[in-house]
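stage 2 :: seqdesign
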């Protein structure tokens, strides 16, 4: 029932329906841990792979399969594996692919848990790791002048929204023999298409824009049929990194409104970013859709819009940031993002608290920085609330 002639909004509703004989409109939820067989012979053939039949929901489930198929069609990937969380997707992709004695190169500006995996976990297995400033392409060339197994980047990055040249880094990664893995969470599947820019693997926290309503956790890794089936799938199946059928069903519901939500959120974010930039007491604003963004030209070339995330810095450091957050009536303090509701967090004491002060300084994460995930509220109400917060920061 899939058609390449359908446009995105249609495909989000109708791709990969996997409808049962009951003819349900909404996808069915297969809340079952196991499956039965018609015979012992069928069971045996299922385990050898000679017969296609569901075995166990850790290995495969009809609802989860529907989500994986729809995400793959949306992303333009050969295949997809859904995982229990976004970090489950990142950790599985790296640990499934990289072996002891190999190298991983990552951009310095990555989420705190990704930073921990690269700098703390992988070295325990004698995997060499190196961090590179995202926009220092001479450093990328140097780091990737040696054989490398994997390159991990975020673009836009968390939380300062650095935009990396994915195609340029992909070319360097491939010359080094590496797979380029792109965490595309901040852009969302509709805001940027890393596979078209040369990436090999795309990673998502489906918790964010795909659900987009603060309900469930989930993750996904997408790439070639060979890599997904031969590398990632055996790892997730045997280590138990499986998405629950119920969460998969909720995420399928989220996909149905993804285009409507992300377009409206990006429009709100652009309006809010401009308003913040005009407020006394705001030291800086980072938004990929603004002309004053350091990588505005790259963002224009590879992103469909500026996204729903804004980073801004207020006066008086942490005291100012806390005063700003505490003064909000509408904006909620939360370290989640991509939600229909506008959320704000203080990265230095939340998402990036375990990143050293020295590293945070290199990333531009000062004590006064606030990360704002813009939702679907009326932009005028958001601006009024943000204005109140910034004024409180000035008085701190």
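stage 2 :: out
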């Amino acid at each position: 029932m899939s058609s390449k002639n359908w446009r995105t909004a249609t495909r989000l509703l109708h791709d990969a329906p996997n409808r049962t004989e009951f003819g349900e409109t909404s996808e069915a939820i297969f809340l079952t841990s196991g499956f039965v067989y018609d015979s012992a012979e069928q069971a045996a053939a299922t385990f050898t792979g000679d017969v296609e039949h569901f075995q166990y929901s850790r290995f495969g489930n009809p609802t989860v399969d529907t989500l994986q198929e729809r995400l793959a069609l949306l992303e333009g990937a050969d295949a997809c594996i859904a995982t229990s969380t976004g970090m489950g997707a990142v950790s599985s992709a790296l640990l499934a692919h990289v072996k002891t004695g190999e190298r991983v190169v990552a951009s310095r500006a990555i989420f705190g848990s990704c930073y921990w995996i690269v700098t703390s976990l992988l070295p325990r297995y004698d995997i060499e790791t190196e961090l590179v400033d995202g926009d220092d392409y001479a450093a990328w060339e140097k780091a990737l002048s040696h054989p490398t197994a994997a390159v991990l980047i975020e673009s836009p990055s968390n939380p300062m929204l650095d935009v990396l040249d994915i195609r340029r880094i992909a070319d360097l990664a491939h010359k080094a023999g590496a797979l380029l893995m792109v965490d595309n969470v901040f852009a969302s599947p509709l805001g940027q298409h890393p596979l078209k820019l040369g990436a090999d693997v795309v990673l998502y926290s489906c918790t964010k824009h795909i659900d987009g309503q603060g309900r469930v956790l989930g993750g996904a890794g997408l790439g070639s049929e060979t890599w997904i089936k031969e590398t990632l799938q055996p790892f997730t199946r045997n280590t138990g990194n499986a998405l629950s059928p119920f969460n998969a069903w909720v995420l399928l519901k989220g996909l149905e409104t993804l285009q409507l939500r992300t377009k409206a959120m990006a429009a709100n974010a652009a309006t809010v970013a401009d308003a913040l930039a005009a407020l006394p007491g705001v030291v800086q604003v980072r938004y990929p859709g603004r002309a004053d963004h350091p990588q505005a030209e790259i963002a224009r070339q590879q992103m469909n819009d500026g996204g729903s995330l804004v980073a801004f810095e207020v006066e008086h450091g942490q005291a100012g940031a806390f005063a700003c957050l505490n003064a909000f009536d509408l904006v909620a303090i939360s370290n989640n993002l991509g939600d229909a509701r506008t959320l704000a967090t203080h990265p230095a004491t939340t998402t990036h608290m375990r990143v050293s002060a020295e590293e945070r300084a290199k990333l531009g994460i000062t004590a006064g920085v606030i990360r704002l995930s813009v939702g679907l509220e009326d932009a005028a109400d958001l601006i009024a609330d943000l204005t109140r917060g910034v004024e409180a920061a000035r008085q701190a």
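stage 3 :: structure notes
- The chain has a mean pLDDT of 96.
- The first helix runs from residue 8 to 14.
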